[in-house]
Design a protein that fits this description.
By secondary structure, the chain is of the alpha/beta class. Helices cover 37% and strands 13% of the residues. The strands form two sheets. It has a seven-stranded mixed beta sheet with strand order 1-7-6-5-4-2-3, with helices on both faces. A five-stranded antiparallel beta sheet has the order 8-9-12-11-10, covered by helices on one side. Helix 2 packs antiparallel against helix 9, helix 4 crosses helix 8 and helix 9 crosses helix 11.
């Protein structure tokens, strides 16, 4: 079997999945279009601002649109938010005080958030939540689902925030559907009204018809160089939620008493608006690429999650490569198929914030944009590749061909 025959065989069995993805794209596009029309977006909203940014209509309208799309009272959508991790950090420091406690309903968060929390033994890391006297209690998932009873048992009078991670991160577990947060939100609102629920929504926007905030999450956060930026936003992050929560977080972003009133942007807001408009389509392209990758490697006998025919809660595709050679070759092939830095050859390295060496393929127009086709993995057994993104399905298909070819050339894969 040739590589093209393998991909064609995989593709032929995805008709039903692709039809569902197309339907979700239409639903998402209609939602975004309706929001743009409701807020009468015009060329004036693209205009740059300088200085303090008082009365920045482009910034303020974009935030109103995000709040409407996520079904929340308020939103922060700013290029000054450097990453999804930065957005989450703003929420954590904005919503708790010294002596408070945070409970994680999805176990340990990914490595970079552990540094913010200050997880570990010894002295508290400088600038961490633990240094300012905030405690943290992770509650493991049970069977890949939120363990509602265990979360409730972990809540104490000091608990002020429950956090949850929608995406799998580097864990071998299913990502969570938006509706899975509804029972947790209901329990907190009814039994612990002083405890907020914050959901890390990275990689999940526009994958489903609704978002966790539609099911009761008090705050949702994410990155604009992931799904909601549509591959066009050059930087930034977003935070949506209740008016009270967003106000507290805004004081952490700028300063108490100032909040969302300031924050200029000397470049045009057009890529943020246009990227948001494109986001449902771009996300659909990424999901189709992920489905194809899952089916290809399932045919080759490898374990994937989600499987090609399973419902998806985010754009990430996890594939157990089983050997370090196969994992590195796959990532190198993805890099070779990238429009940017295709000549680079990824190798495992000691990436700041991670406990294991990491290999990363990311030949993207926007540095680090994981809505563009990329792949990365910690170098630990069972050597799982985490692939995500793809601005177009056609590019994703070609990149899979090149990745498989690299694996064959390196002797890491044999096609029968």
């Amino acid at each position: 079997m040739t590589i093209e025959e393998l991909i064609a065989q995989a593709e032929s069995g995805l008709t039903a999945q692709f039809a569902r993805i197309d339907r979700m794209e239409e639903i998402g596009t209609r939602r975004v279009l309706d929001a743009f029309r409701e807020h009468q977006v015009a060329y004036r909203h693209f205009a740059p601002t300088t200085g303090y940014g008082y009365d920045d209509v482009g910034r303020d309208t974009l935030e109103k649109i995000f709040a409407e799309l996520f079904g929340t009272q308020a939103a922060i959508v700013r290029p000054q938010i450097a990453s999804g991790t930065h957005a989450i950090s703003l929420c954590l420091f904005g919503l708790v005080l010294p002596g408070d406690d945070i409970v994680s309903a999805t176990g340990m968060p990914y490595d970079t958030l552990q540094d913010i929390i200050g997880w570990g033994e010894g002295d508290a890391p400088v600038g961490s939540l633990r240094e300012m006297g905030v405690s943290f209690h992770p509650v493991a998932l049970r069977g890949g689902k939120i363990d509602l009873d265990a979360v409730e048992n972990a809540i104490t009078p000091k608990t002020k925030l429950v956090i949850a991670q929608r995406s799998r991160g580097y864990d071998w577990r299913p990502s969570l559907m938006p509706e899975e947060f509804a029972p947790l939100a209901k329990m907190l609102h009814e039994k612990h009204p002083g405890v907020r629920l914050m959901v890390d929504n990275c990689y999940g926007e526009f994958v489903c018809e609704k978002e966790p905030s539609h099911y009761g999450a008090d705050v949702c956060v994410g990155s604009l160089i992931k799904n909601p930026g549509g591959g066009l936003a050059p930087t930034g992050g977003y935070i949506v939620g209740t008016k009270e929560a967003v106000e507290r977080i805004a004081y952490r972003l700028t300063a108490p008493g100032i909040g969302l009133e300031v924050g200029s942007y000397a470049a045009s807001y057009q890529p943020f608006y246009q990227g948001l408009f494109m986001a449902p389509h771009t996300v659909a392209q990424a999901i189709k690429t992920a489905c194809l990758a899952a089916r290809v490697f399932e045919i080759l006998g490898m374990t994937t999650t989600p499987a090609a025919d399973e419902p998806r809660a985010d754009i990430i595709q996890a594939i157990q490569m089983r050997t370090p050679e196969r994992l590195v070759a796959f990532c190198q092939g993805i890099q070779m198929a990238s429009p940017i830095d295709s000549m680079a050859l990824p190798e495992p390295w000691d990436m700041p914030g991670y406990n294991d060496q990491v290999v990363m393929a990311a030949g993207t127009f926007v540095a680090g944009a994981s809505i563009e086709l990329s792949a990365d993995a910690p170098m630990r057994e069972p050597y799982t590749a985490y692939m995500q993104g793809g601005l177009t399905y056609t590019h994703g298909r070609i990149a899979l061909q090149m990745a498989l070819n690299r694996m064959v050339e390196q002797g890491a894969l044999t096609l029968k």
